């Protein structure tokens, strides 16, 4: 069995991934809190404020993803390592954030 590579990420890329994870979690929580279409009375829709907040969070997630995706770290890696490195980053940054937040209860 091949040993899995461990990648060392620059701090700004880790910060960008943490920001992306945070905005994804915020957007997911917001969307879960909205009423389901089936639960709205006939003829009622989400408010303009709810649509605007959804759009704001969607844009924030897209912008955060672009920061991670366009980071120069990726071009320095051999093409064959990029998928593994991106997958590892997605699991590394949220795990580090969870460890950082354990003492803040």
Structural features, described:
With 105 residues, the chain is mainly α. The protein has one domain. It has four helices and no strands. It has helices spanning 11-33, 48-69, 73-76, 82-101. Helix 1 (11-33) runs antiparallel to helix 2.
Short synopsis of the structure:
With 105 residues, this protein is mainly alpha-helical.
Write a concise keyword list for the protein shown above.
mainly alpha; 105 residues
Q: What is the mean pLDDT?
A: 85
Uncertain runs:
101-105
Count helical runs. Answer: 4
Terminal residue distance: 40 Å
Structural class: mainly alpha
The total number of structural domains is 1
Rg, nearest Å: 18 Å
Shape: elongated
The count of β-strands is: 0
Order of helices and strands: HHHH
| Helical proportion, percent range | 55-70%
Strand content: under 5%
Q: What kind of sheet is the major sheet?
A: none
